[in-house]
Request: fold
Amino acid sequence: MLALHNMDMRKPTVRRAKDQNCYAWLSRLARRLFVISLSGIFISQAAYAVTLRATGGGNIVALLHPFSSLPQGVINPHAMIHDMLFYVSTDGTLEPGLALSAEPTSDTTWQINLRPNVRYSNGRAFTAHAVVKTIEYLKSDAARRYVISAETRSIKSVRAIDDVTVEVETFVPDVLLPRRFGTIIMPEPWLYEELGPDAFSMAPIGTGSYVVEDWRLDAQRPLLKGNQDSWRPPVEIDTVDIRIVKDAPSQVQALLSGLVDVGYNFGIVEIDALREQGFRIVTKPGGQVASLALANRDPTSPFADQRVRQALNYAVDKQAIADIIMMGTTTAAGQAGLPGMAGYNPNISPYPYDPERARALLADAGYGSGLSFQAEVLITGILEAPTMYQKVAQDLAAVGVSMELNPLQGQQWIRKYFTGDWGDADAISATWNAASYWDVIRAIEIFSCKKTGAFFCEPDLMPMIDASHGMFDPEERSRTLQDLSQRMHDLAPALFLVHIVDVIAASDRLGELPFRHKQLAVDKLRMAR
Reply:
C-alpha cells in the first residue's frame, strides 16, 4: 500500500514537471512572438518615417508670422501647421476645414458649424471660443498692421453659441464671408496672446498635420514633423525638409542634383531640362492675371481716356507672350477671372492683336502723333517678367507709344501699390488677384474706387459692386459678376497680359500630387509605389 501510495504520489510530480516545461516553452514562444511583433512595429514605423524634400522661393523670415500674408505658394509651412475654417478649391467649391458648414440665418448673420473633437498640437481643444478670440484679435488695433486683418472688415461681432457653433454678424450683407474665412489661419490664440506675436512665430502651435521641429533660420531650411494627433494626420510623409532659396536657378539646381523632390516657381525655360531628367511637370491655375495697371485719377493723363487704355490692349500681342515667352504654359487674358471662378464670363475674349485699331483709337483720342509714359514693374516673382515687359514695350513702340520701363523691388512695389502714390509713374505692374476667394469680385475691387489708395475709379460701377455682396442667389450673383467682368474688360483699367500659373516639378519618388486650394496637400501625399 505504501508503494502504491508512493507511486501515486510520484505521478502528480511528473505532471507538474511536464506542466512547468510546457509553461516554459509557451513563455519562450510568447517572448519570441512579442519580439517579432515589436520588430514589426519598428519596421512599420521605419517605413512610415518618410521625408519630403521640397524647395521654394522667398525668405523664411517673411514667412514666420501667421497673419503677415495670405497662405500662398505651393509649399507653405503655415498651410501644414495651421488650418482655416474653409478651403476654396480651384473649381470654386467651398470645402470644409475646421468648419463643416456656414449657413446664413439672416441677411447679416451667419452660423458657422465647427468640426468637433479637434485639438491643437499642444493638446488644447479647438472650439468656438478659439474662433471668437482669433477674430476679435484680428479686428483689434494691435492686428491692424497685418494683411489678414482686412479680411475681418465686414464683421461687426462674433460670439460662441456653444463649443462647436459660432454666430457671426456683419455690418452689411456679405455673401463672401465663408470665403473670407478661407484666408484666415487659426493658430492657438491663448498661447499667441501669452507669448506675443514674435515669440509665438518661433514656436507656432496649430491644428494642422505638422509641427515645427526647427525653423533653422540661418540655413533657411525649416524642418517640420508629422502631428499624428491632428484631425488630419499625415498618411505617409512624416518629415518635411524645406529649402528656401532666393532665385530660380538655385531651385532648379536643387532639383537636378537630387537635393529635393519637388519645387515650383522656377523659370519656364527650365521645364524641358527638368523633363529630360525625369521630373514630372504639373501646372495649376494661379488665380491671377498679370497686367499693367493704368491710372485714371489724373484727368490730364492720357489714361483718363478709355480709348487710350483700349488702344494699348490692342497694340500688344498677348498670345505671343503666352506661346513664346511663357512657352505655352498659359493663355492670354482679357478679364478679371478665369474658368471655374464665380463671375467668369465665357463670352469675353482677350483683346486681339490689332495694331491698326490701336493707332485709330489713339488718333481718335488726340494722340495720333503718339505718346510717352513711364511704367514701373515688379521684377521678382515671375522669372520671365523682364522679357515680357520688354515685349510689351516693343509692341507699343510699333504704334507710336513710348514706354519707359523702370524696375521695382518688392518693398518699393508694395508701398506704391497700397498707398496709391506712384510718384512719377503713369503705370505699375499689378495682378487681378482672385485666387483667395476664387471669385472675380476680389480682383475687380482692386481696380475700383473701393481699393485703399485707389488708382482707378469708376463711380458708376460701385452700386453694382456693393450690391453683389448681398446677393445670396447664386444665379443672380453670377449674372451680375459677369456683367461687371464685361464692364471691366471694356473700361480697360489695365493692359491685360496673361494668366499666371503655378508650375511644379516633382521627382519620380513622389506619387500623385494632391492639392488643397493652391497648396500641395503634403498630409495626403504618398511616395510612388
Q: What stands out?
A: Residues 170 and 421 are 31 Å apart (CA to CA). The first strand starts at residue 50 and ends at 57. The chain has three domains: 50-59+208-279+507-524, 83-194, 285-502.
